[in-house]
Write a structure and sequence with these properties.
mainly alpha, 71 residues
């Protein structure tokens, strides 16, 4: 068993966020930051970055802004 922590792939996080958002809807809770994060993860998947962890969300931000934030 490995003792190192591992980040989850964006596609896995997106699926789990969908469950959270649906549960929130059912109980009348509003989760605006979760909804925005879910949209970013969905964009990662559409950009074929779904197997990367959340640190790759920068690629979505760069695409949306039309600039490169990191060299």
């Amino acid at each position: 068993r490995s003792t190192q922590s591992r980040s989850s792939a964006a596609s896995d996080v997106y699926k789990r966020q969908g469950i959270v958002i649906e549960t929130a809807r059912q109980v009348g809770a509003v989760l605006p930051s979760t909804a925005v994060a879910s949209q970013l993860y969905q964009s990662m998947i559409q950009m074929d970055l779904g197997e990367l962890d959340n640190s790759a969300v920068i690629a979505v931000i760069e695409a949306l802004s039309g600039t490169t934030l990191l060299d």
